[in-house]
Specification:
The chain is an alpha/beta fold. The chain has seven helices and five strands, in the order E-H-E-H-H-E-H-E-H-H-E-H. The longest helix is centred in the middle third of the chain and has 20 residues.
Length: about 180
């Protein structure tokens, strides 16, 4: 897996940590937000109940299910950017049209794609319990995934601390460290 060069230019208004279910979006996203001193949000919290019910039943979402959810997330990102409160969002963002919808009318959004093998993620899913995302949907997530061309990539086989330190260095956004 090759990694793009570090992000340059203006600070992003948001960072979206993306990838299939079970890749560690929430864990890495929370740790990255804490390191940067940014707000953290998990996109799963913003699904309408109808989406949750479908996923809980093992039914993959269709684009029509996702549009209102993605629009709500875009509104959250734009609102945070307008208030100059940068946010790290954990969101699957599996297709380019979803990423485009998330980033619509935003000055700059940085996508971080957490990558790992199907087998590794399947093992991780077997060890966790999710409120509504059954491991049976993992195959459909891999089938839907369109690898982004403009994201930073992180190998999830690494420890979270290593992933976050590497991302902070590549983003060049590390929060100032206190001496105390």
């Amino acid at each position: 897996m090759s990694a793009p060069s570090p992000v340059t230019g203006a600070m992003p208004g948001a960072i979206v940590v993306m990838g299939v279910s079970g890749c560690g979006k929430s864990t890495v996203g929370q740790a990255l937000a804490q390191r940067l001193g940014w707000e953290f949000q998990d996109a799963d919290r913003f699904h309408p109940q109808t989406n949750v019910d479908k996923m809980r039943a093992g039914t993959p979402l269709q684009d029509a299910d996702r549009w209102p959810w993605l629009d709500r997330l875009n509104s959250l990102l734009r609102h945070s950017a307008a208030k100059r409160r940068p946010v790290v969002l954990a969101c699957s963002a599996l297709r380019q049209v979803y990423r485009d919808r998330l980033a619509a009318r935003m000055h700059k959004v940085c996508f971080i794609h957490l990558q790992g093998s199907f087998e590794l993620i399947e093992q991780r899913l077997a060890l966790r319990s999710h409120a509504y995302m059954p491991s049976s949907l993992l195959r459909s997530q891999f089938e839907t995934l369109e690898t982004p061309g403009d994201a930073l990539f992180a190998d999830i086989a690494q420890p979270v601390e290593t992933i976050v330190a590497d991302l902070a260095a590549r983003l060049r956004l590390d929060a100032p460290q206190s001496n105390g």
